[in-house]
Design goal:
The protein has 184 residues and is mostly helical. It is built from five helices and no strands. It has helices spanning 3-36, 41-73, 79-104, 114-141, 154-183. α2 (41-73) packs antiparallel against α3 (79-104) and α4 runs antiparallel to α5 (154-183).
């Protein structure tokens, strides 16, 4: 391994570590702010709209990236296609997640309800998994354009699939719990 590759990898590790801290701090700040504010009804209505719009943008983009990942895994698309979709949809994914955290702070969640705690943990898992998946983007970028999923080392395939499953479980847990909380 060349020295410049090692330096690059260390730099990427530091960026990811900073991203883990920032996303966790943003998540905690959103919860903390929610305990301080009692928004007027009009602002609550705006926050619900922003929350739903952010969910559509963020989850929609995640579904597209993971759809392309499935297409790559089943050899219907190339790794290059997956990488292009991933890079293209990263901004809407993060915009959606940030929108969810910001608007969620204005929705007055019941922090004593177990379902709310479950939703908050799911949102944190989505966030942390999202940061971890940035490592995949760098990893996939080193492959030849026509690299097949089955050519990956077994451990990498398992981690790739596990990250996608975790992503879907966490997103849909947050969605379902949010829906249940808002209708009861």
């Amino acid at each position: 391994m060349t020295m410049t590759l090692k330096v690059k990898q260390r730099r990427q590790q530091r960026r990811r570590a900073v991203a883990y801290v920032l996303i966790t701090a943003g998540w905690a700040a959103s919860i903390w702010v929610s305990t301080l504010l009692a928004p007027p009804p009009w602002l609550h209505t705006v926050a619900v709209f922003v929350h739903l719009a952010s969910l559509i943008v963020g989850l929609g983009a995640v579904l597209m990236v993971e759809w392309y990942a499935l297409l790559w895994a089943t050899e219907w698309r190339s790794v290059r296609d997956l990488r292009q979709v991933d890079v293209t949809l990263k901004p809407p994914i993060w915009a959606g997640l940030i929108g969810l955290l910001a608007s969620g702070a204005l929705l007055q969640p019941d922090l004593e309800a177990p379902t709310t705690i479950l939703k908050l943990v799911a949102v944190l898992m989505v966030s942390i998994n999202g940061v971890a998946l940035t490592q995949w983007t760098a990893y996939l970028g080193r492959f030849p354009r026509k690299m097949r999923f089955r050519a990956l080392p077994r451990r990498a395939r398992i981690r790739f699939i596990a990250a996608a499953i975790l992503s879907q479980l966490a997103w849909w847990t947050a969605v379902i719990v949010g829906m249940l909380n808002s209708t009861t």
